[in-house]
Amino acid sequence: MATEALFSFAVERLGDKLIQEANFLKDVSRQADRLHRDLRAMQCFLEEADKKQEEDSRVRNWVSEIREAVYNAEDIIDMFILNAQSLRTNFFLKRGFKKLINRYKVGKKIEALQLGLLDISNRREALGIQNIGEGTSRSAQIQMLQDLRRSTPDAQEQVVVGLEKEADKLVNQLIGGDLRRRVISLVGMGGIGKTTLAKKVYNHTQVLKHCPGCRAWAYVSQDCRPRDVYMQIIKQLVFTSTNDQQVLEMVEKLQEHELGDFLHGHLKVKRYLIVLDDVWSCRDWNSLAKVSSNDPDCLGNVFPDGGNGSRLLLTTRDKDVALHADARSTPQEMQLLSKQKSWNLFCGKAFLDHVDADRYPPDLVQLGREMVDKCNGLPLAIVALGGLLSKDMSHTEWRKVHDNINAYLAKQGSQTGVMTVLNLSYIDLPSYLKPCFLHLSLFPEDYVISTRKLFLLWITEGFVLSAEQADQQRMKVTAEVYLNELINRNLIQVVRMSVNARVVECRVHDLMRELAIRKAKEQNFFGTHDIANPLSSSTSNSSLFSSKCRRQSIYSDMERYASVEHNTPYLRSLLLFNLGHEICRISQLDFIGKCFKVLRVLDLEGVEVESLPSIVGTLIHLRYLGLRHTGLKLLPLSIGNLRSLQTLDVNNLKQVPNVIWKIQNMIYLYMEGQEDDIPLKIDTLENLQVLSGITFKQWIQNNSSKLTCLGKLKLQGRYELVEGVEFWTSIAKLRVLKSLYLMASEESSFPSLAMDSCLYLSKLDIKGHMQKLSETFQFPPNLSQLTLDSCRLDCDPMPILEKLPKLLTLRLRAESYLGTEMHVSANGFPQLKVLQLFELSNVINLNIEKGAMPWLMQLHCYSSTSISGVGKLSNLVKVKIVSNSTIPVTRRNVKILRKNHLYWDHSCDNQ
Predict the structure, then answer these.
(1) How far is it, in rounded angstroms, from Cα 737 to Cα 675?
(2) 251: Cβ–Cβ under 8 A, 6 or more apart, which residues?
């Protein structure tokens, strides 16, 4: 579970500190090193113990004790370093005396902790859990739930709402199209209705005609046992009468591989439909189909391809499973119900009819609608809620459920225990994803999360582990992989994606967030508090959070939170979400430096503050400081003392203090919107990977050759204050720079830019007036993404841009071009895949010649522009035409659009 991942990171971090802080720890290095070895010895038992927590309370308590020991070890080392740092300001004799006391105290604490670890180890054996890896891997609770959820195709739901279109589409996939054997997959989060839809189409008249007498339904579950699955299928296909009992007994004695061969032989000459309900992993699919893990494209030998239109239908929570089972088939991803469909489903369960709720008391209808909204479109939750409320139609009962809806939805011991069903998705997570999922519990309900921020927080928290721990760039890529895996497992919802199919914003379903909160509390991952009203008047100041609390998130009432007594000295992460837009003044922030001295993450984004107190500079363990949209204009000079800081995220400062150069561990520096262009030294930051918001003048005053890790750079201000050749020479020295953003101030402009020396640059954004567009040869030779914004070009940019050989994405934003005509010639843009035109108000026509943009897949136009030549773009996958843009309605254009199921705004039809 999450404990194993957090433990691994904590042990590694302790080892890193023994190296990085050798100067501070030299007086206790022997004790600290032994403590590190003892913790590593415990680690070998923890992974298997983590898996058994669900079923054995003794193991759960034992793991909890280990977790506390790791936390204590971290606290001891961090506080020792903090005290050692503070002693540097004392006189020599006084410093020496206090140093001895500090060393003595920490030595005693480490000694006590080692005795505690020995006691934990001894009690592990005394409790009889020394052989943790032995025995069954399934918990009794999980097995019971799987037995309850075991599906059959016969028990169809009486109330099915909102699946008509999905069912029709699925039936067409099952009976039509390719004659080769295909695997069709239904993908979605737990409780979204995958099995319900599968049952609906399994018993559909057309499906029955397509596969007469050769259909079977098998429930797989997390505990995938191929032999059991094969027997489920064989009993439905082969032994349909009692006369076959003797043969059945013989078949049941066969080994697993023999059963697979038997099934293959029976299916070989038939057109069949096999439903595999609830497949959890690619490994499970491989074992069922007998696919070699080294050859995922192999069709396997259990389910044969007779070239007769046979189908397998999978239901799974993981999109990767669907793509692995059949890369040629597009998975059908289940969507949450709309508000109206949710209400219709609820009425069918609670009022015993679909929509006629008018004859019921208005107070019940109002309560019902509010509770349905809390289900956020998840059918399982709506059905469970409606079934519960149908038993008692009194206002008292409905109000009781309304006020405690999460507790009712978490009801255990039955198939309607919504949280129990969702919990299976958490249990199935690999250990490295569990802390990432739990971390989502810190964000408010329905909060739209920036993935850029999320990645930085995960890295800072230590959730992103890789073989190259020091390679922060690789860790950011790994964080994105983690996010995509959680999305594919339907634990996170995508809110917005870039044109390059990268997730920009995401959110968590309310019930998934509730699950994360419950699990986080079990793991002591963050402080226990009332999420709806974390600082209610009924809560005493001393009991707001546990003293062992490691993370806190506050959503409201900043003034009271700042004024209460804080008894969480070892807090590591503090996230403030000012959803009420209150003003948080300077006097309210002093407590952060006074009470949370070993803080690593401090995020005040959106909280309005007048200034940051200088005491923040004493937080020497701080790694992440988020100050975006706080209204801050100045930072204290003491910020230069934050020697561990890796991320500083702030915007719209009047000026940045010239002390940033001291923070030599800085990796991500965001400081857009500076008002004053004063000198700023940054060339000592050799670990810097992202630098955003530095002015052209500040940049040229630094030696860029020292910034050997810089991969992303955003510059702003007055470009004419720098000499062009000198500037581009400084950019060319950045050997790993991939992304460059140039933003000129309104009174400034760019001349023709000579960028051909930037050999490694692949992404370029230019915002601001350009006197002339650079010639093709002046662009970076490996440029793949280009954005022009407010450039006010007089001449059509296409004749130059279409010759860029490696360009994949082109965005032309508002006022990038002021002319009326654009023309793309034959063979232009040989590799372009995405073309976006935003608010080019003057452009009347875009003409695309035959042979141009042969690989274009996405065309977006947000302008009053007529586009001709679309019918010549045979690889288009997506067309989005809005505003008054038009595509001439020719047979060729319509054929291309319909063939590829492209998005075509209705305004086009009226032209």
Answers:
(1) 26
(2) 231, 234, 238, 239, 259, 262
Contact 460, 624 (CB under 8 A): yes
Q: Which two tokens stand for residue 456?
A: 């930085």
Q: How confident is the model at residue 36 (pLDDT cuts 50, 70, 90)?
A: low
In this structure, are residues 769 and 460 in contact, taking their beta carbons and an 8 Å threshold? no
pLDDT tens for 15-27 read 555 445 545 445 5
| pLDDT tens-digit map of 640-699 | 999 999 999 999 898 899 999 999 999 999 999 898 889 999 999 999 999 999 999 999
Other beta carbons less than 10 A from residue 131's beta carbon: 9
- Whole-angstrom Cα distance, residue 60 to residue 56? 6
**Separation of alpha carbons 792 and 771, rounded Å:** 8
Q: Which two tokens stand for residue 544?
A: 């707001």
CA distance 869 to 888: 9
Q: Running DSSP on this structure, what letter comes out for residue 462?
A: T
Q: How far is CA 296 from CA 187, 321, 458, 903, in A?
A: 19, 11, 31, 33
**692/713 Cα distance (integer angstroms):** 6
pLDDT of residue 703: 95
Q: Comparing C-alpha atoms, which of 666, 619, 625 is closest to residue 638?
A: 619
At residue 536, does pLDDT exceed 50?
no
What's this model's pTM, rounded to 2 decimal places? 0.83
User: Do residues 620 and 638 touch, judged by C-beta distance below 8 A?
Assistant: no
CA distances from residue 80 to 92, 260, 446, 532, 573 in whole angstroms, order as listed? 19, 62, 40, 37, 19
For residues 319 and 333, is the Cβ–Cβ distance under 8 A?
yes
Cα 803 from Cα 487, distance rounded (Å): 38
Angle between helical axes of 395-403 and 379-389 (0-180°, round to 10): 150
Q: How far apart are CA 108 and CA 127, in angstroms?
A: 28
Region at 513 (left for phi over 0; alpha for psi -120 to 50; beta for the rest): alpha
Could you give the CA distance from residue 563 to residue 218 in angstroms, rounded to a whole number? Answer: 59
Whether 310 and 267 have beta carbons less than 8 Å apart is answered as: yes
Q: Please write the tens of the pLDDT for every residue from 44-90.
A: 566 556 655 666 667 777 777 777 777 777 777 777 777 766 655 54
Q: What's the DSSP call for residue 316?
A: E
Phi and psi at residue 218, to the nearest 5°? -130, 130
- Are 805 and 828 contacting, i.e. CB atoms less than 8 angstroms apart? no
Rg value, the chain, Cα: 31
Q: What's the burial of 884, exposed, middle or buried (CB within 10 Å: 0-12/13-18/19+)?
A: middle
Cα dist from 357 to 160, 353, 386, whole Å: 17, 8, 13
Q: Please state the length of the chain.
A: 911
- Residue 125 amino acid letter: E
Asked if the model's pLDDT at residue 773 lies above 50, the reply is yes
State the pLDDT at residue 256. Answer: 86
The values of phi and psi at residue 333, to 5°, are -90, 120
**DSSP state letter for 666:** -
What is the CA angle 625-629-635, rounded to 5?
50
Q: Summarize pLDDT for 215-266 with one digit per residue, the tens.
A: 999 999 888 889 899 988 988 888 765 556 777 778 888 888 888 888 888 8
Report d(CA 93, CA 172) in Å as an integer.
Answer: 86
* 855's tokens: 């690989």
**What's the mean pLDDT in 200-229?**
89
Please name the residue that has the structure tokens 């904590």. 10
